[in-house]
């Protein structure tokens, strides 16, 4: 059969990216093919540096033409000084040496060992890459004597990560194939900036998509989709890992501009950017995807007063250890919550990301008041974020009674006293969280305020405190077994 060899250069339609927030993406590009009858050697020289080769799909999107991939090869060893040293091992080449007086001279040396390590071999700190060995005038040295001068490139060297195929076609065919593959090194996150006025709890929210491209390839005029959700992805054991403040006015942005669209896809959510964008290699890019005003919110104060010993043996019987759970946490948490509903000017599935809270001061300046992460939040759910500890509200918790009888039909009585102090100039309501961790069967036999049962081992109280007021809450839990 005839064998036609040619190199395919990138051309055709704009690329498309579906980026996942797990440091990988699916890339789709149009690849013009002009196949002759028989075997065809095809080369693509514009792949990323982190392609998963076994994910590559090359197909005719129309399904009208049938061809067979007989062989596929992926090479990611672009030409470099180290690689050229490897390709010239055993050969004698010239080195340019800088003299101390600013002049240069040329010496000839034989490359005994290049010291080259393939890209997929990551030298460990305790197992460094071997040093090059060069023979100059009959003597060996473990360093290059100067700047190496190499002969012309060989046919087996490449300048970019490259995909090579042998394609069989039963008849001539000229069409735009679709090339798709999974690549590492591309990720996205969501960032939310939330601003409250100088008084009150009505929020303005701006959300940004942050794209991070560390893949080794630039994407020009790319159509971008963002997949939000916990998609299961097996991480390659020898894969490459790359270690890598948004502003924006809340007011005064004209409406009617293209917006990010969202739709459900399988059990996840897809966000499509409104227009193509160029993503440069080693670039971090931000795109606004959500803007909302007049979002009603609540500021919550939560006191979870128990401080547990992390070194405690979890297999011990808690019914016999009086001191367990008696250490007191003085901090009262500040929480911010709002409903992700259309009635609250939101109602869009919110991908996981960092939420930064700001409040305008009386002089008009915006001051940072805390931040935290949120998980993927569907519409019609409540967003609740811990932003820090209250400065002027403190708590104190102590055990006041402990009685235990262990024989069958036994019981345990435990009482606590919780004190809250409000040093603010405004009134505050504090939600007190208590954990019934001694045993599964319990009942509250005495309490100074009514509780609300959250689950089988958690109850909550609410105490309202006036400025400079202290209140004391007491309760007794009776356990039986």
* Beginning-to-end CA distance, first to last residue: 84 Å
Q: What would you call the shape?
A: elongated
Going by CATH, the architecture of the domain at 298-335 and 383-480 would be: Sandwich
Q: What is the mean pLDDT?
A: 84
What is the makeup of the main sheet?
13 strands, mixed
CATH class group of the domain at 298-335 and 383-480: Mainly Beta
The value of Rg in angstroms is: 33 Å
Strand content: over 45%
| Total beta strand runs | 32
| CATH topology term of the domain at 298-335 and 383-480 | Immunoglobulin-like
Model regions low in confidence, pLDDT < 50 over at least 5 residues: 1-11, 121-125, 237-257
**What percent of the residues sit in helical stretches (DSSP H or I)?**
under 10%
Q: Which structural category do the helix and sheet elements fall into? A: mainly beta
Q: What is the count of DSSP helices, taking H or I runs of 4+ residues?
A: 1
Describe the protein's architecture and organization:
A hairpin with a 5-residue loop joins strand 26 and strand 27. It is built from one helix and 32 strands. With 481 residues, the chain is an all-beta fold. Among the domains are: 101 residues; 69 residues, no CATH class; 136 residues, Immunoglobulin-like, CATH 2.60.40. The N terminus is likely disordered.
